[in-house]
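2024-03-11 09:14:02 DEBUG pipeline.ingest accepted 1 chain
2024-03-11 09:14:02 DEBUG pipeline.ingest length=742
2024-03-11 09:14:03 DEBUG pipeline.predict start
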Amino acid sequence: MVFTLGLPLYVFTVKIDLFGLYGGMPSLREIENPENDLSSEILSADGVSLGHYFRYNRSQVHYNELSSELVNTLLISEDHRFYQHSGLDLPAYLRVIKGILTFSNAGGGSTLTQQLAKNLYTQNTDRSLDGPIAKLGNLPRRAIQKTKEWIISVNLEENFTKEEIVAMYLNTSNFSSNAFGIKVAAETYFNKQPDSLNLQESAILVGMLQAPSLFNPKRNPNNALRKRNEVLSKVFRHGYKIKTKRQFDSIKALPIELRYSVENQNEGLATYFRTVLGNYLLTYCNDRGIDLYNSGLKIYTTIDSKLQRYAEEAVTEHMKPLQQQFYKEWKARGGNPWVDEDGHEIKDFLGRRIRQTEAYRRYAEKYGENSDSLKIMLKKKKPMTIFTWKGERDTLFSSYDSLFYYKQFLETGMMAMDPISGHIKAWVGGIDHKYFKFDHVRQGKRQPGSTFKPFVYGLAMESDYSPFYTLRDISPQFKVKGQPAWSPANSDGPPKGTGKLMTLRQAMAQSKNSITAQMMQALGAENVVEFAHRVGIDSKLDAVPALCLGVSDVSLYEMVGAYCTFVNGGINTKPFFITRIEDKNGNVIDNFVPKTKEAINEQTAYKMVFMLRGGVEESGGSSVGLPYELKKDNEIGGKTGTTNDASDGWYIGVTHDLVTGIWVGGDERAIHFPSWVFGQGASSARPIWAKFMTKVYADPTTGITKGQFKRPSTGLDIQLDRYKEPSDSVKIRDDEPEDIKN
């Protein structure tokens, strides 16, 4: 009698939290909408999932996205009376009590709904749900928690269908390996969606529900195999799918087949891009009171998964042998790649760089800056896994060994962009995001070398110079007050030039410093700075004579965007990478549109496209060496760039529908290529562009095609399709500055 009246009264007092003794219940929102810890998903322009931002790697699925094998295996194993009870299963409780009294294993008494209630309650980190009684110890706390789970179970059954409860349970379950929810679990262990799980795979995942780590098929395969077969035995006894003992024995003998991959920002496509995007989204979401990691956002990006994959493949295919050649040449020289402007190895380079490492800071804090222990610990070898182009390798390295090893790696950045829409289609920020976090697309800024020259010639075209205007290949002299006179040398041939007449198109195609400098002298450094800023360069540029050779630091992101202005008829479209953001219900939070402005007129823009084509079409052009198949039935423009000290190699290639830039160099300026020839953009960077475009053109589904650049809508103001080679009879313009005439 006391039990019959007391139990309902006790449950009621817990439900209303009488006198605040038991602590509150989870909120009505959490009960009615138990979709907590929703990761936000990144989607490519072609609908491919690029990854997630999460605290717990969880994504929701609906009941109709679950395979029948999974649902039936779950119910048979965990709650075969699921459709007969209303959240609490009295016969199951009686069975448990009988098992306790007879010392036999009678199974658990919790229903699937109760297990869901437990998931919802235990994953709620609000400690205000614990009242004074619960804080007396584990036993009273567990008793109150269990009571609340009963109450939540009844509420769930009253508010949701059975199918919704099944889906919610699987969505809120932990499957180890940072996989929360059935969708992520299926992707992590089998690279599948939940609607494609077969019987054996379903049995593995259902078996993990009782003890996720113990029955993790990757970490504990023997335990997982035994548990899978226990689940399959229940399936067999209920006559689902497995009808005979022979079938059961056959399926039980099958090994576990995994396609295991834990999602993180170091794996998958566009790893550097996802990090850059994540930093942007954190600011965006914080400004709007949105939790990026807990809101189930869908972020639609401009990245094309096919182009991204081809870009990453092209980088790998070129950088791997380039690194081997880099090692080989420096070894032959008997030195290290950190050298000064005179080519001498920098003394104590590693000693100074080690002070910038986390290991040094940690040991210095523990042992003191000048202690012997600090030096000993930095030189002490310890096990570590390192990056190699043949895959990860375990080794014994000290902190000095690690620094010496990684400082010798060449890095790269690559970005491809639709010049019309401004959509960034591919973003490769380095060779391996796990080991090299620095992004060389937007975060890094380096001297662009000769890839800056088109901005000088662009201003010339705007100032009514013709691509066929001729100058002699003679290096001019710049006189700057208070400084010695400066005269730039060409990278090949006589330092001061050959004296031959060349058109501006030929000069840019062959990257002649002498003629670029003459144009700089005629146009004015300040005006070149203004032009470069107008077409898309945002970085500070020094208005000095050497600017014409690319001595001011810029990012690859800026350079690609600026070159797009030429292809886009003079319209500068700021590179962008998000098209829209939706909430978890599919409602659009924000649409993103590109920022555009008319930077130059379309006549000037097209003349610059024609100038860039000169690199491919003019004799001795820096892009002549591109594969014939790329050039066949196609208009291509391109510009190489190399810094004087052979620290940086650049290439920017343009077509009518894609502009792509590549930078290659050491992780810092002190790292040099062994020779200028080896490090020049034509050798270090251009091959990546060629490999990338070859892959892109071979795949018609990318939508990137060969073709001609768009001509100005008003027609050409000069004839560009044919012209004569320059000769000494060509007259110099009357308005040409005297210092160029002489």
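2024-03-11 09:14:41 DEBUG pipeline.report The chain is about 40% helix and 10% strand.
2024-03-11 09:14:41 DEBUG pipeline.predict end
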